[in-house]
Write a structure and sequence with these properties.
The protein is mostly helical and about 100 residues long. The chain is about 60% helix and about 0% strand. The protein has one domain. α1 crosses α2. The longest helix has 20 residues. It comes from Pseudohongiella nitratireducens.
Length: about 100
């Protein structure tokens, strides 16, 4: 069983009433259930949208060409990368 995390929200009265009405209309007993259902239904699609890159054929060809013949890395970029390494910066989600 996953850990339950508490989350509080402050809404203006109109938004709160709208959420209550929508929860009842959806047959759910609470705003919490309604918001949870919305997240479960819509979050995967939202994440997929932001995790995809769509290119035209011309853009893809230009990308492939850039990958096949990369430009030399500038001294300034190398220094910036070294500084991030020294600071312990990591791109992975665990680090």
């Amino acid at each position: 069983m996953s850990k339950t995390i508490r989350y509080e929200m402050q809404w203006d009265e109109d938004t709160h009433q709208l959420a209550e009405r929508a929860a009842r209309a959806a047959g759910l007993g609470s705003i919490k259930a309604y918001v949870s259902q919305l997240i479960q239904q819509h979050a995967p699609e939202t994440l997929q949208t932001y995790n995809q890159v769509k290119l035209s054929n011309a853009e893809f060809d230009a990308f492939c060409q850039a990958c096949d013949s990369p430009q030399p890395v500038s001294h300034k970029l190398k220094r910036a990368a070294q500084k991030l390494d020294q600071e312990g910066f990591s791109l992975d989600e665990q680090g």
